[in-house]
Amino acid sequence: MSTLLSTAALLASGILSPAAVTSESAHQLTLSEADKLITLPLHCVETPYPYKTGITLGSAEDLKEPAEHHPIFYGCFDWHSAAHGYWSLVTLLRQFPDIEHAAEARAILKRNITAENGAQEAAFFSKDINKSFERTYGWAWLLKLADELKAWDDPMASELSANLQPLVDVIVQRYTEFLPKLVYPVRVGEHTNTAFGLSFAYDYAVNHELTELKGLIEQRSRDYFLDDKNCPISWEPSGYDFISPCLEEIGLMQRVLPKDEFLPWLQDFMPQLADVDYRLEVGRVSDRSDGKLVHLDGLNFSRAWNLYALANAYPQYAHLSEVADQHMAYSYPNLIGDSYEGGHWLGSFAIQALNQAR
User: Fold this and answer.
1) 140: how many CB neighbours lie within 10 A of its CB?
2) pTM over 0.90
3) CA–CA distance, 167 with 151 (Å, rounded to integer)
4) pLDDT on residue 5
5) Which of 21, 90, 167, 229 could cysteine-pair with 122, CB 3.0–4.6 Å?
6) Can you give the C-alpha Rg of the chain in angstroms?
7) By the 8 A CB rule, do 146 and 164 touch?
8) Reduced to 3 states, what is the DSSP secondary structure of residue 253?
């Protein structure tokens, strides 16, 4: 870790350019790193305040404590961050059964993801007034959490999965209702990004043989993105981005297109990625206590997971692992001990990137 901290410090100071960072900065999700990362969701999933509700009030009856609306996802500042906080707990427990704080994490999962709480969360989403709540960012993370629970070979996981299933069913229904109505994709670098919202949902549909949802995402991805060319990544990042519109679109199309279609599409979409000397400057954070500015650490992690995925799947793009490493080297050392503005969600992004780096 000391090497990584030194690299990050040099990058932040401007003494070292991102292009100069080598693959020596690559990360792996080891038990020791997992022991550190699990402290982030443990600290937030049952922390009720501060909390950003994001709900539409239909009447005075909706003026309730967040935990009354969301008895599972009431922590971590907002609903979607709570969803990926629980995903972090499940992911780390599944990969590292002997992780430190395992008993505490399991107790939290069992205490909150109950059948009663799952039914109440589902009821909230089922109301017409909440149709657009967490669309599609929170939806995607909920399905990713459900996917992880189903993949976890543990008796408790089966129970938790069943308790969450009513909400999962509502979210799947929301996708199938919404996507035919979405005429144009949302291409921003924040929560409503369409490519991100479809990627985790597609993984869930594939893994659980949801033919209708899988086919719908494939078709809408083609409708939205198949004719895209020359993505202007030089315009990125915007000031609050935590998702790269260009690279997240690549991540989705890598999923939905067969190799013989994907590679020509990628060459048209971002031909510069094929250059073995390709470099992409990291997103620089000026104030990690600012909840919007710290988004750029998330951008670095989400860029990394898409670059790793591409590099690992196609040898001709293997050089992109170095670009991903540079992004990790800048943001990863700041996770532990970060302010709550970043700590309540960035660990999930780091875990996803580390898992793609394998």
Assistant:
1) 27
2) yes
3) 18
4) 37
5) 167
6) 20
7) yes
8) helix
